[in-house]
Structure formats: structure tokens, C-alpha cells
Amino acid sequence: MSRHSRKHAVKANNKATAGVKEPAAITGELPRFVPENGPEERPGHRIVAASSAHLAEGAASRVSGAQAETPGRNRARVKASRQVQRTDNLEPNGRKKTTALSIFTQIIVLILCILLGVGYMGQQRNVQSSYSSLSESELVRLLDETNQKIDQLTSQKNQLSSQLESIQNAVDKQAELKQMEENNQKTAGVIAGTLPAQGPGVRIRISEAKGKTIPASALFSLIEELRNAGAEAIQINTVRVVTSTYFSDSASGVLSDGTLLQAPYTVLAIGDSNALRNAIEISGGIGSTLRVQYKATVSVDEKETLKITHIRKPRTFQYARTVE
Where does the chain cross the membrane (predicted)? Predict the structure, then answer.
């Protein structure tokens, strides 16, 4: 290419760049650039000018795009960092952290501790100064008053201890009296026949022979022998025997406390079973009398546990009263 042609192409390229405002879309066919003025160039010149103009326009658009993209990225980064800072300042429930409040609380606690320490030290100094300012006679007098107070408190303690011991003894005595009263009531109930009784003893069975009737006196002698042998509770058939129990003969048989007794007789006696048995089986005793005189059948069985369940109604005394 001649010097004149290259110079003419550069001019055409400059004019084309200045005359084109927007880059044309890249297609399969290169755009044609028409200069604003000047003679028409040859086809080769137009291709070179169009290529140069297209390259320049592309470079300019990439630079402007990069410049336009950079502020946008910067703004996004700044926004993200602010969001992170805001998130860091939030608690899980969305509220701001109470850092300032905790610091304020710590300061208050520290101040209170300092005031407490200062007050305690001041009190100790006042006590020490109060004793150090006293004279020897005043200290002696204070010591005497303290000893007197100690003696008074010791005396009161001894008095209270004595009262407590008396109360405890009274309570123990009252409990003992109550226990004795309960035991006496049980004993009296067993003797009076108002309470059931159980214990070791003997069971006596007496059967009459044909044509022979055992009189009331023989049964009374049997009961008396058992009492003399130490029987504590006695029952004959359905009658609970007590101190006021009586036996009498009637046309129907033997009456005991208004109850008709019929043979065979069953006598239950609680006490020393061996002594009770010997009282009945002794030679010449009531057992021998019943067998020989009345031809009765008498059997005595010792029992480790014997129950007397029949009871009497409490007796109402018309004249007798307990001693207050």
C-alpha cells in the first residue's frame, strides 16, 4: 500500500470513529462506515476502517462496562458487611445484646462491694477506738458487768433446766400412771368378766350318769377349788364366773346367775395349767367326789392357749364409790 493510501485510511478511521455514536451489533457482515465528508474510498480502505472502528468501540465498551460494574460490586460488598455487623449485634431472639446493661450491672455490684467493705472497716475501727479510749477503771467495770450478766444467764439456764427436768418427770409419771390405769382397767375387766381373756389353762368336761344329778353345791365346790388354785378367769358353759356368781338348784336343773346349766358341763379356767389340774385330780378332791359319789365322768385337758369369749355387762353399783 502506498503512503498516500495508508494516510487516507487513518483519516477515514478517525472520521468513522467520530461519526459513529453507538456500536453496531456484530453479525456476519461488517457494517459499512460512511464518512461525513470527503471523497469515497475504495473497498479495501472501507474494510480496514470498519475493523479499526469496531475494535476501538469494543475496547471502549469493555472499559465502560468494567467501570460501571465496579461501583455495583462495591455497593454490594458494603451492604453485605453492614448486614453482618447488624447480625452480630443481635441476640438469637432478634433483640440487641445487652452489653451496656451487663457492664452497668457489674459497675453497680462493684460499688456496693466497695461501700460494704468501707462500712465494715469503719465499724471495726469504731469498736477498737471505743475500747482504746476507755480507762483502766472503766474496763474493769465493763468486765465486772459482763461477768454479772454471764452469772445471771447461767442461773436462768439452771432454773430452766430444772423446770424442764420436772416437766419431763411429770410427763413420764403421767405416762406411767396412764399405763398403770390401762393395765388396771384390763385387769379389772378380766376379773369383772367385762373383757375377753386368753392364756394357758385347763378344759374340764363333766358328764352325768343315768339317774344321777350333780347338785349346785358340787359345781360351786369345783369353782372354788379352781379359784384356790389360782384361776384368773373361769367360764362354765355360757356363764362367765365372777365374784358375785352363784349356783342354785331348781326343778329344771342348776341355775347360775339366772342361766340354766345343763349337763354335760364344760368348765374353762385360765391359770397355771399344772396347778389347776392337780386341784381337780388330787386324791380326795372334787374330781374324786364327782366320780365316786355322783358316778360322773370327769376329764381334765391342759391347754397352752385357752380363750374365754363370754363376757358380762358392767355392773352398776348403787352404794359403792371409788376413793378420790
Answer: 100-122
Q: How far apart are CA 143 and CA 153, in angstroms?
A: 15
> In this structure, are residues 258 and 212 in contact, taking their beta carbons and an 8 Å threshold?
no
Q: Which CATH number fits domain 197-308: 3.30.70.1880, 3.40.50.2300, 3.30.470.30, 1.20.120.140?
A: 3.30.70.1880
pLDDT band at 24 (very low <50, low <70, confident <90, very high): very low
Confidence of residue 255 (pLDDT cuts 50, 70, 90): very high
Q: Can you tell me whether residue 258 is helix, strand or coil?
A: coil
Please answer whether residues 242 and 193 qualify as being in contact, where contact means their C-beta atoms are separated by less than 8 angstroms: yes
* Residues 25, 31 contacting (CB under 8 angstroms): no
- Predicted model pTM: 0.49
Q: For position 30, what pLDDT does the model report? A: 42
| Cβ atoms 308, 196 nearer than 8 A | yes
CA 279, CA 202: separation in Å to the nearest integer?
Answer: 11
Query: Are the CB atoms for 277 and 202 separated by under 8 Å?
Result: yes
Cell numbers placing 118: 468501707
Which amino acid is residue 131, in one-letter code?
Y
User: Measured between alpha carbons, how far is residue 298 from residues 27, 84, 230, 286 in Å?
Assistant: 150, 116, 20, 10
pLDDT at 17: 44
Dihedral of alpha carbons 88, 90, 96, 98, sign: negative
